[in-house]
Design goal:
The chain is an all-alpha fold. The protein has 1 helix and no strands. Helices cover about 80% and strands about 0% of the residues. The protein starts with 10 loop residues before the first helix and ends in a 15-residue tail after the last helix.
């Protein structure tokens, strides 16, 4: 071969390019590992928050069940009280009716009770 047609030796260039590519891959890999670690920590934090919220929800559900039960008891008591109140109001109305009827009657006084000299 002659000097004019001699092929260029690219091995140094290829080695330099390979080293740059390897350096970039190493950097990208390190950044990716760091980002994945941060995301994993964020996911774990969110998971812990969700677990705490789930515990709070369970606690609130238990309290709600207790309150519903207490409300049902209270409603039954209120209904019972309302029925008794209605019965008492009916009795009071009847007693008032009887009292008014008695007051409306004319009371006849016997003659002996009348005063002498008023005739």
């Amino acid at each position: 071969m002659t000097d004019k047609h001699r092929e260029t030796d690219w091995s140094a260039w290829n080695n330099w390019c390979d080293s740059r590519i390897d350096a970039r891959r190493s950097f990208d890999r390190a950044v990716l590992v760091e980002l994945i670690a941060e995301l994993k920590a964020m996911i774990q934090d969110q998971d812990e928050k969700l677990n705490r919220q789930a515990e709070n929800i369970r606690s609130l559900e238990l309290k709600l069940v207790e309150l519903v039960g207490a409300n049902d008891v209270r409603s039954a008591e209120d209904h019972e009280t309302s029925v008794r109140l209605a019965e008492h109001q009916i009795a009071i109305a009847e007693l008032r009716r009887l009292a008014n009827a008695e007051q409306a009657k004319v009371i006849d006084l016997p003659d002996a009770v009348q005063r002498p000299g008023l005739n």
